[in-house]
Amino acid sequence: MKVISIINFKGGVAKTISAINISYALVVGHGARVLLIDNDKQGNTSKFFGLHSYEAPSLSDVLTVKGFDIRKAIFETPFEGLHVLPSNMNLIRANKEILLDVARPQQTRLKKALRQVCTGTKEYDNAESYDYVIIDNAPDLSMSAINALVACDDILIPIKVDQFAFDGLDQLLEQVEEIREFNEGIRIAGCFITMYAQNNVNVQGHQAIRDIGIPVFDTVIRKTVKVDETTFLGLPLLEYAKNCTAAQDYEALVAEYLDKYVTGISTNEGSGLRV
Q1: Which domains, ranges and CATH numbers included, belong to the chain?
Q2: For residue 101, how far is the Cα from the chain centroid?
Q3: Does the pLDDT value for residue 122 go beyond 90?
Q4: Residue 34 has pLDDT above 80, yes or no
Q5: What does the pLDDT look like over 169-192, one tens digit per residue?
Q6: What's the rounded Cα separation, in Å, for the pair 183 and 240?
Q7: Are 58 and 79 spatial neighbours (Cβ–Cβ below 8 Å)?
Q8: How much is the pTM?
Q9: Is the pLDDT reported for residue 120 higher than 70?
């Protein structure tokens, strides 16, 4: 099982849309079983799939209730192979509780909980297992975000090219280095450009990110109104408009990631835009 965090400390860069569509592309394009974790108090991923609730268990319970069975907070979506662990505003309280609870480790709670749905974990032989866990993170540094970084194998960083494109990137890179104390194997798999338009600003911005010295995906996610439409319908792009540019781009991004980091899984680079 590979755990991937979608994160950027800057808002408005399409983290949630990316997490949803990367997850769905893994399911429909590669036959993977995917758990999508909503790690944002706004709960937009949960709302997208109609799973936002204050009655049902959520990520807050996973992070604060000792011995909590994570499987009780995982819910099916209309799409076979894709499950969601939802969130809500209770995550604000959960982050405070984690900080106040010094009797238990604070940074490793999500990592420990995910062992319950990890293939081959001896004490959970009958557990539901997933090939990938995708974590949609809020644009802030909270204890739940730290837990996500400690639990993950790879980090994907969506970036929208504008005058604020690099805001928070330095802080994120610094935080990743600090997290290595708890997660030596954490890796920045790469940045990818979202809401891309074929103009000088985006072309130069793509190169500027490369010049920082961190990995950058060749595939970019092109801007399209279809993305906004999916938020009203609760349908991933590959389900709603599979031939639109952004749908093709997310498909290609997943293929590029698998080709680079998951040997032997993907042999197709996809038909998305690569620059």
Answers
A1: 2-261 (3.40.50.300)
A2: 27
A3: no
A4: yes
A5: 888 888 999 999 999 999 999 999
A6: 37
A7: no
A8: 0.93
A9: no
